[in-house]
Amino acid sequence: VARLPFEPHRVVRVGLAGVGRRQRSLLRNLLRLEGAEVTALHDPDPASVEEARAVIAESGSGQPAECGDFDALIGRDAIDVVCIATPWDLHVPMAAAAMAAGKHVFLEVPAATTLEGCWQLVDASERTQRHCVLLENCCYGYYELLVLNMVRAGMFGEVLHGEAAYIHDCRELMFRDERSFRRRAHMDRDANLYPTHGLGPVATCMGINRGDRLLTLASMSSPSRGLQEWRREHVPAGSAMHSETYRCGDVNTSIIKTAAGRTIVLQYDIVNARPYDRRNMIVGTRGEFRDSPPRIFLDGQSEGGAFADIDPYRARFEHRFWTEHGRSAEESGGHGGMDFLMLRRLIEVMQQGAVPDIDVYDAAAWSAVVPLSGQSVAAGGAPVEVPDFTRSGWREPRPGPWT
Ligand SMILES: NC(=O)c1ccc[n+]([C@@H]2O[C@H](COP(=O)([O-])OP(=O)(O)OC[C@H]3O[C@@H](n4cnc5c(N)ncnc54)[C@H](O)[C@@H]3O)[C@@H](O)[C@H]2O)c1
Fold first, then answer.
1. 22 lines ligand 1 (CB under 6 A)
2. CA 316, 322, 323, 324 torsion: positive or negative?
């Protein structure tokens, strides 16, 4: 499905599976987009449905149909794409069922948490010829797209190395709800549980699955401390959460080698007191970009070797998505506008009958870091092979996406 265009749509009819915190944020953006119509939704939690209905009422749009179960949602005719934002273990069965029912899928991150799940998504997308697009919003961030344009223009020379991360203090969020899937995942395994926000943009700059691919991965974790410490100080005595054991090491660091020999360092830490950071570092033969704050060093720039402000490059390299729609994105909100731009682009691509920027092979390769890092940690950091989800298709460069 790497070159499979969407069939053109005048209006893209969207069904929502799960209307929790994330989906309601996506919904606010979808409701602002001409060319998108939310026609149905399903969530077993009445409070989530009520909150979604309030968001829709506030926008002045008509209320979508409410489906009693997921099968009823994907069985509806008036849906072109099912947007899935549910707990992680539901992603694969829901996405596969939606594709089997003839619907395209927008799927929240990570797409899958097992290698079998990654393959199920690839197989289902190929068998049904339906797209399974990973909703990796960070690929649509301002500096991520600016740097992508600079990479494509050769400003960094040959790209050799990247560093990426998901560092986000989620301790309060993880203990807010006793059933939190994020906290439960830290009980189940020791791995990088949320790799795609960091990896997606770096992989895009390296043309992963479009001329290169992720080949091997080695991973190690620090001790597990952050959740226990936070619980001791904040969770009321007597809560059942005090009996939980958190296996996941606080700071998980992986190194990935690509088929072309490039390297990527990827880190995950959501349980310690650290500033938010996706790092987003690109290193080439002629320069380097680092984010948070964004800064650049190019060959010949300064004798002292100090980083410089990247803003002077904005005029030349700002991505057209931001030039054309940045104002609407900032007004709309959602992670600084990247959510709006991602959804606007997806609706545009579906209306035009074009190929999506991110496909099921990207969803599988980026999400496979979850199980592969777990395997490598369990093996003392030994390298593990990344499956070739493209079945050799990665060898052919594919111009087009992100333009
Ligand atoms: N891309 C991003 O920036 C971003 C940000 C936050 C969350 N996420 C992702 O979004 C997803 C949801 O996260 P969240 O924070 O909204 O969690 P949440 O707990 O707020 O929402 C999950 C919703 O799924 C519903 N649900 C559970 N079982 C269901 C079923 N069988 N059918 C339909 N709905 C069901 C729940 O009732 C709940 O309303 C996760 O995959 C998460 O990783 C992505």
1. yes
2. positive
Is the CB–ligand 1 distance for residue 135 below 6 Å? yes
User: What residue has token string 């991110």?
Assistant: 358
Does the C-beta of 29 come closer than 6 Å to ligand 1? no
Residue that has been written with the tokens 């620090």 in this structure: 222
Q: What is the DSSP letter of 266?
A: E
pTM: 0.98
Measure the CA–CA gap between 210 and 393, rounded to whole angstroms. Answer: 8
Contact, 12 vs 82, CB < 8 A? no
Q: Over the stretch 148-174, which tens digit does the pLDDT of each residue have?
A: 999 999 999 999 999 999 999 999 999
Mean pLDDT of 33-59: 98
Strand pairing report for 81-84 and 65-66: unpaired
> For 180-287, where are the alpha helices, taking DSSP H only?
181-188, 196-205, 226-234
Residue nearest to atom 37 of ligand 1 (CA): 45
Mutate to test the pocket of ligand 1, among 26, 50, 86 (most ligand atoms within 8 A of CB): 86
Place of tokens 């961030």: 141
The verdict on the CB of residue 20 being under 6 Å from ligand 1 is yes
Q: Give yes or no for a contact between 15 and 83, defined as CB atoms under 8 angstroms apart.
A: yes
Tokens of 128: 């049904």
- pLDDT at 400 (0 to 100): 63
- Report residue 312 as tokens: 């002077």
Amino acid at 312: P
Residue 100's nearest CA partner among 122, 125, 81 is: 125
Decide if pLDDT at 402 tops 90. Answer: no
